[in-house]
Design brief:
The strands form 2 sheets. A 6-stranded mixed β-sheet has the order 6-7-8-3-9-10, sandwiched between helices. Strands 2-1-4-5 form a 4-stranded antiparallel β-sheet, covered by helices on one side. About 30% of the residues are buried. The N terminus is likely disordered. It is elongated, with a radius of gyration of 36 Å. By secondary structure, the protein is an alpha/beta fold. The chain has 2 domains: about 325 residues, ABC transporter type 1, transmembrane domain (ABC transporter transmembrane region fold, Up-down Bundle); about 240 residues, Rossmann fold (3-Layer(aba) Sandwich), CATH 3.40.50.300. The chain is built from 18 helices and 10 strands.
């Protein structure tokens, strides 16, 4: 095992308040805009409350049913116009509120999404070796979408509904006998408690839905990325069954969520209908006894409908808020992942002069019970090449990862020109080191983009110069679209040698003083290896180079070769001296030469 499997327990569920607090910094910049939006919202609600009041006056003015009433000569034009203006104002203020708040809402979504994306790129290699890309992408997608929904629900559904209920209860209590306000208040409280209890209970099904959705998405993306492997082994049906199993569990959780939703809606409807019926009985009795006018009856009825409709919507809103918080919890939990390798508070910029690299008594383990490197010491002088060889699992690639500081050493220190790499900034360290990996993975973009990735500020001429040095120019010229040719997912449209040349070209474009060649030709055939080897020798010229080698034929020109065995350096020297020593290196060389002769013969 080369890497540690994550053994720490999963993080505890974030509280709803912690999730909401995560949003506040992203909104604070737009606090004045949000304040204006809330003011417009309050004006819209006040206009909405004024509509039933205006309607009551209109009805009472037009009511000729009583014996004492006298026919009116003219319509109450002012009241009718006022009624229309109040209706218009409600709509106008709501639309202005939406326009004013849009920038704050969308900005919060952008900042949160960017924050999570940035954090993911700063997490350790240990995290990314265990991640499931499909699941993470779905978590971020759901979380980003839910962020905007939550903001709208909290600010423009919960707060205004509570404000409207409070004002209406105050008007009822002031103008009518106390039972009207009390029944209304009891109905609202009962509705809230019932909704809270049932929705909290139902949340478990939403969580299960999300988990199964992420698993299904992970399985689908993993299967599609490995399309060729699936075809090689004829496992199309197996992949469909694997995907279908997760979808089946998602379906079961979804059905439970929908059926329990029916229970929630029935209970909410019963509470609202009961409260509305009781109030209307009281109002009807008031009209028949003469203590209330017909306008009062309409006013009470309109008020109740006006608050019960949003109250009914409030149940949906509360349910959706729970769903949003559940969705956002997954995304924000990524922010709780600890960054294993970070800059120290006093970290300084790495100053490279000679690019002399020294490994001083290095020890390291991925797991406490299994030591990978044991007291490793060696120096790579300025502009020299040091190669590391050894059996699989001996710690060769671990040395390269420690130099790049994907991990911090357990003991000893690594220095560049005498500077401990743990005391310099990660950005300056990474800028000083170029890596040509064994398995080059390209972006699904053009050849020019992938070469230019080594230095995003480079112009077209610099990209072409790097291509020439990497012996890519002839290949690119043979393509119909040249540098604009798209390489496909992970560069699958190109051969291994072509991808390696692109990796060399973008490293040349980066122009680092220190170079790591991590088994850069081990995955290539002999013909491709010879073609790439000359480009590798060119890129290593005048650079301090660490070569992780599998094929010994690629390192015979190294200034020093280190042989690792079970985490220790057991042999060191140039190619010829190691052959004369007749040890592990000499035996590896003999085996590889024999294999090469068989392959060529």
């Amino acid at each position: 095992m080369r890497h540690q499997l994550r053994t720490e327990p999963p993080s505890e569920n974030r509280s709803d308040w912690k999730t909401i607090k995560t949003l506040i910094p992203s909104l604070w910049e737009y606090r004045y805009r949000i304040g204006l939006a809330l003011l417009l919202l309050a004006l819209a609600k006040l206009a909405n409350i004024g509509v039933p009041l205006a309607l009551k006056e209109i009805i009472d003015t037009l009511d000729f049913s009583t014996e004492s009433a006298t026919p009116m000569v003219a319509l109450p034009l002012a009241l009718l116009i006022g009624y229309g203006l109040l209706r218009l104002s409600t709509s106008l203020f709501n639309e202005l509120r939406a326009a004013v708040f849009a920038r704050a809402s969308q900005s919060a979504i952008r900042k949160i999404s960017l924050k999570v994306f940035h954090h993911l790129h700063h997490l350790s290699l240990r995290f990314h070796l265990d991640r499931q890309t499909g699941g993470i992408s779905r978590d971020i997608e759901r979380g980003s979408r839910s962020t905007g929904q939550l903001l709208n629900y909290l600010i423009f559904s919960i707060l205004p509904t509570l404000f409207e209920i409070s004002v209406v209860c105050g008007i009822l209590l002031y103008n009518y006998p106390w039972p009207y306000a009390v029944i209304t208040l009891i109905t609202v409280i009962s509705y809230y408690l019932y909704t809270y209890k049932v929705t909290t209970w139902r949340t478990q099904f939403r969580i299960k839905m999300n988990e199964m959705d992420s698993r299904a998405n992970t399985a689908a993306i993993d299967s599609l990325i490995n399309y060729e492997t699936v075809k090689y082994f004829g496992n199309e049906d197996f992949e469909s069954r694997r995907y279908g199993k997760n979808l089946k569990e998602w379906e079961q959780a979804s059905v439970k969520s929908q059926t329990t939703l029916a229970l929630l809606n029935i209970g909410q409807g019963f509470i609202i209908s009961t409260g509305l019926t009781l109030i209307m009985i009281l109002a009807g009795r008031g009209v028949t006894t003469g203590t209330m006018s017909l306008g009062d009856f309409v006013l009470v009825n309109t008020f109740l409908i006006q608050i019960y409709i949003p109250l009914g919507f409030l149940g949906t809103v509360f349910r959706e808020i729970r769903h949003c918080l559940t969705d956002m919890e997954k995304m924000f939990s990524l922010l709780d992942e600890r960054q294993e390798v970070i800059d120290r508070p006093d970290a300084h910029h790495l100053e490279v002069s000679d690019a002399r690299v020294a490994f001083n008594d290095i020890s390291f383990s991925y797991l406490p019970e299994r030591q990978i490197l044991k007291s490793i010491s060696f120096v790579i002088p300025c502009n020299s090449k040091v190669a590391i060889v050894g059996a699989s699992g001996s710690g060769k690639s671990t040395l390269a990862r420690l130099l790049f500081r994907f991990y911090d050493v357990s003991g000893g220190c690594i220095t560049i020109d005498g500077q401990d790499i743990r005391k310099v900034t990660l950005s300056s360290l990474h800028q000083a080191i170029g890596v040509v990996p064994q398995d080059t993975v390209l972006f699904n973009d053009t050849i020019a983009y992938n070469i230019g990735y080594g230095n995003p500020e480079a112009d077209e001429q610099a990209i072409k110069q790097a291509s020439r040095l990497a012996h890519l120019e002839e290949f690119i010229a043979s393509l119909p679209n040249g540098y604009k040719t798209r390489v496909g997912e992970r560069g699958l449209k190109l051969s291994g040698g072509e991808k390696q040349r692109i990796a060399i070209a973008r490293t040349l474009l980066k122009d680092p003083p220190i170079l790591i060649l991590d088994e850069a030709t081990s995955a290539l055939d002999s013909h491709a290896e010879k073609a790439i080897q000359s480009a590798l020798e060119e890129i290593a010229t005048n650079r301090t180079t660490l070569v992780i080698a599998h094929r010994l034929s690629t390192i015979i020109d190294a200034d020093q070769i280190l042989v690792l065995d079970e985490g220790r350096i057991v042999e060191r020297g140039c190619h010829q001296k190691l052959l004369e020593r007749d040890g592990i290196y000499a035996r590896l060389w003999a085996v590889q030469q024999e294999q090469r002769a068989l392959a060529e013969g």
